[in-house]
């Protein structure tokens, strides 16, 4: 503007702003001197640009309004395509403990190769033990492999010890694991029964090969970390040490006593006895003092146990389906 609205078109120092002004139409070539640019009326240019932009905005608005229907039609077409998928095995559900037990009984009795069981919780009812012991011995005589995992509290229950002693005499393998784990039954590596609710009032019967493979791997991981349980009356010191380690670790983490007992499959009375022993060892009058002193001076059991502690899982069932 200082130059009377005229600008040299060859000046390299203003190449960028000159190009922008040309794009908007605010500069136009001088008809008398092609090497010079002259300024156009801004008000006229503004009116033209506003009209163009409004037209473009209206066009985009119309396209955006039509897009949902257009993509909906494409979605229907995509859904009708033959996708490369393979159907998995079905999942059935059994409701109520009696129905669950009937399903399990039928599957186990018809096993041809192997039955794997992870059975958390404490002592099992004597009536169930008496009912399944002869069944399991018959399976073993037919050549069916039988492996079972309990929690350490099973070692303190006389009916369970007697059951374990009898089936191990016929070739079964039983172990205990001082960790929380879920109930699991796998038959012939083809079908599995797992809880579908925390109270075990609903069970899922799974036959999908991929899920079965995953559950078998989970069981084998538990099995490797377990300690053999031949049914003997005397509880091995290793079992006691591992159980105490888990209790100590969970206490240091601030887990409540009821959750600890439920997770490890022991009674709250048994847990209280262990805690009383810890308080005596640490010369602590209160649980607060015990927790503080354990945090300051971790027990050698925990220091020696560098394995990661698994996540806690709730769900101590009121009723326990038989395996």
UniProtKB/TrEMBL annotation:
Transmembrane segments: none annotated. InterPro entries: Sig_transdc_resp-reg_C-effctor, TrmB-like, WH-like_DNA-bd_sf. PANTHER family: HTH-TYPE TRANSCRIPTIONAL REGULATOR TRMBL2. This is HTH luxR-type domain-containing protein. It comes from Kitasatospora misakiensis.
């Amino acid at each position: 503007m200082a130059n009377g609205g005229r600008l040299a078109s060859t000046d390299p120092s203003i190449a960028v702003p000159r190009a922008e002004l040309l794009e908007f139409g605010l500069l136009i070539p001088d008809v008398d001197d092609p090497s010079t640019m002259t300024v156009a009326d801004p008000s006229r240019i503004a009116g033209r640009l506003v009209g163009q932009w409004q037209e473009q905005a209206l066009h985009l608005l119309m396209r955006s309004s039509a897009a949902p229907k257009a993509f909906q039609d494409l979605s229907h077409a995509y859904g009708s395509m033959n996708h490369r998928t393979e159907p998995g095995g079905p999942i059935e559900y059994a409701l109520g403990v009696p129905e669950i037990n009937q399903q399990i009984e039928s599957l186990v009795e018809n096993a041809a190769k192997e039955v794997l069981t992870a059975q958390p919780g404490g002592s099992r009812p004597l009536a169930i033990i008496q009912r399944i012991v002869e069944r399991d011995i018959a399976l073993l005589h037919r050549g069916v492999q039988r492996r079972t995992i309990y929690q350490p509290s099973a070692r303190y229950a006389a009916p369970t010890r007697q059951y374990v002693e009898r089936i191990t005499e016929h070739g079964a393998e039983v172990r205990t694991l001082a960790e929380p784990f879920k109930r699991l039954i796998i038959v012939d590596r083809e079908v599995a029964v797992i809880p579908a609710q925390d109270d075990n009032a609903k069970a899922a019967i799974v036959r999908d090969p991929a899920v079965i493979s995953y559950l078998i791997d989970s069981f084998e991981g538990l099995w490797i970390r377990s300690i053999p349980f031949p049914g003997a009356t005397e509880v091995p010191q290793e079992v006691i040490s591992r159980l105490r380690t888990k209790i100590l670790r969970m206490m240091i983490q601030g887990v409540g006593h009821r959750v600890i007992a439920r997770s490890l499959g022991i009674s709250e009375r048994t847990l209280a006895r262990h805690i009383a022993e810890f308080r005596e060892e640490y010369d602590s009058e209160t649980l607060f003092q015990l927790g503080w002193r354990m945090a300051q001076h971790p027990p050698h059991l925990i220091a020696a146990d560098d394995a990661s502690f698994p996540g806690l899982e709730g769900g101590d069932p009121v009723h326990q389906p038989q395996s």
